[in-house]
Structure formats: C-alpha cells, structure tokens
Write a structure and sequence with these properties.
By secondary structure, this protein is an alpha/beta fold. The protein has one domain: Histone deacetylase domain (Arginase, Chain A). Helices cover 37% and strands 11% of the residues.
C-alpha cells in the first residue's frame, strides 16, 4: 500500500464543519438537488469505445431517462469540476499519474487495445478527462451528502483503481478520494463504511484501506469473476461471496442481512454506496441473475437502512454493461423518491 494512502487523515470528534477546503468542494444553491452530473462524463473515442462492453454513454442516458419521466431538470443538478493532478495526488502516487501519459498503460486499464496506438493527448481528452470529471463528481458528492444527508454521483465508482494501479475500466480512485476529503474536512467523521454491491470485488479501495480500522468494507460479489484479488480481500470487514447466476431471493436476503449486520457492528458516520448494476441478469461480465426489480429493491434496502439511522450516504453508479442499465438506475432513483428516501425538489 502506497505511503500516500497510509497518510489518509484521521479526524477528531469536533463539530461537523469543513476545516480545509478542496477546490472540488463547490457550493450549491437552494434550487439544486444533490445529484451530480455533467455531459463531460460520457466517453466518445471515434467508435473505439464500442470495443468494450461498457456503455460509454450510460451516465448521460440515466439523465435522459430521468428527464423523459419529468423527474428532474438538468438545471437543478450540481455540476462538478474536473479533478486535476493536485487533487489526484492526494491519493495517487506521482509515478501512477505519470504512467497515464503512456497510451499503452491506459489501453490496459480500459481493456481497449487499440487505445495504445492513439496519441496520448487524444487519450487524455477523450478517455481520462471524462474519468477525471466523474472523480471530481464523487468528491463533490461526499460534501453534498454531508450537507443534505444524501447525494448521488451519476458516474464514478471506479473500485478497481488504487493509489498505484488502475484496471477494469477504472483509472482513478474516486472512492478513496471522496473518503479522504470527508475525513479531512469533517472532523466529526471518524468511521466510514463502504457498501460495495457491484458484481465484482472492489479490490482498488480495499488495497487503499488495508489496515485502516476507521474504514469498514462490506463487499458482496461474484467470487468466480475478475479480479479475484486475494491480497485485497484482507481489507474486507464483511465478505459475502456469491455463486455465479445467483438470483433475487438469495441475493436480496443476503444484502438485507449483511447491510443490517454491518451497520449494527460498525456504526459509521458516513457511507459510500457503490451501486453497480452489473448484477443484472444477462450482464456478460457480472454473471449474476438479478432482475431489474431486484436491483431497485436492493438499492431501497441500502438507502432505507442507512437513512433510518441518520447517516449521510453518497451513491456512485459503478459497473453495468447492458444498454438497459441506464433505465434501471433511473427507475431506482425514482423509487427512492417515491419511498421518501430522497427528495428531488430544490429549496
């Protein structure tokens, strides 16, 4: 584990007021809701993005679905800043940031081999810049969650990236950065929980927080798929390994049981919820068999248990490799609104 992550701040029990302002911690006005997004999240690379199963326009499609159903208006969404080197170096080593200036390394991270042949200036603009905006969005969502009790970054959730290494379509450690800034800025937050319900093991943030008693990780994942990182598993506080093609009944029972157990065991003061939708039936990489209804119910379980305890929660959308994924995320957000777990009205 890199020294830069070993130095993540440990906060003291003092009032919940920011004490060290980040340039990513933008102010929002009373008419805005704590949903974070901007069009720069989406990736367009001359059609090469289609070589990866990930929907490179997923994030914009979520917003389109919400707009179509007249749930929110774009003007009410909070727009983040791009994370720059000065921000990324809070959690990444200088060597890792330099490594991204080689297109070959980015090609390995994104799993799109032709990217290695592109000039790095194009790779920076068309691939890494969207990731940096989403990383800035996760950082901002942490602040908004502390202020409003909840926040959703329509992007982010790059849980395979740690301080020294990217992979699995994850180039920046946005979860680590969001937690770093909350611990640094809000002195009353001493215990943070990551609830990672993406189909894949969250080995990036796990590697970053190995040995940290103030960060509790609940990870529920398909044990037969990438990344199978045995070293990172040492950081998992509550590990739930699933068989391939697990279905709704078993899955939802385990989520309900283990989210409840984790919250009762650790009593966090801030929660990061990595809400990957690659658990959905038909996903070629997640290889689980959870229905659309099951995903919506899963999200409701997490939000209800966290919100009932009055704990600030930020959600990131993480993996999901089907074209129907965006509509499921939108429907889940609408369900959270209908169940009074979030409010989509400004003011």
């Amino acid at each position: 584990m890199a020294d830069v992550v070993n130095e993540l701040p440990r906060s003291q029990d003092t009032p919940s007021m920011p004490r060290s302002r980040s340039r990513l911690y933008l102010d929002s006005d009373a008419e805005q809701i704590p949903i974070v997004y901007r069009p720069e999240y989406n990736i367009s690379l001359f059609g090469m993005e289609k070589l990866h199963p990930f929907d490179a326009g997923k994030w914009g499609n979520v917003i389109k679905c919400l707009d179509k159903k007249k749930v929110i208006k774009n003007c009410k969404i909070v727009s983040p800043e791009e994370a720059r080197d000065e921000d990324l170096l809070l959690v990444h080593s200088p060597g890792y940031i330099r490594s991204l200036k080689w297109s070959f390394n980015v090609a390995k991270i994104t799993e799109v081999p032709p990217v290695a042949l592109l000039p790095n200036c194009i790779v920076q603009e068309r691939i890494l810049r969207p990731f940096r905006y989403q990383t800035g969005g996760s950082a901002l969502a942490g602040k908004l969650a502390m202020e409003h009790g909840w926040a959703i970054n329509i992007g982010g959730g790059f849980h395979h990236c740690c301080s020294e290494k990217g992979g699995g379509f994850c180039a920046y450690a946005d979860i680590t950065l969001a937690i770093y800034l909350v611990l640094l800025n809000y002195q009353n937050v001493q215990r943070v929980m990551i609830i990672d319900l993406d189909a894949h093991q969250g080995n990036g943030h796990e590697r970053d927080f190995i040995g940290r008693r103030d960060v509790y990780i609940l990870d529920v994942y398909n044990k037969y798929i990438y990344p199978r990182d045995e070293f990172a598993k040492q950081a998992i506080s509550r590990r739930v390994e699933l068989f391939a093609f697990t279905e709704d009944e078993e899955y939802l029972h385990k989520v309900n049981t283990h989210v409840e157990g984790a919250l009762n065991e650790f009593h966090p003061q801030f929660v990061v919820y990595n809400a990957g939708t690659d658990i959905m039936i038909g996903d070629s990489l997640g290889l689980l068999s959870i229905s659309k209804k099951g995903i919506i119910e899963r999200d409701e379980i997490v939000w209800r248990k966290v919100r009932q305890r009055g704990i600030p929660i930020m959600m990131v959308t993480s993996g999901g490799y089907q074209r129907s994924t965006a509509a499921v995320i939108a429907d889940s957000i609408i369900n959270l609104k209908n169940k009074d777990l979030i409010s989509l009205s400004g003011g």
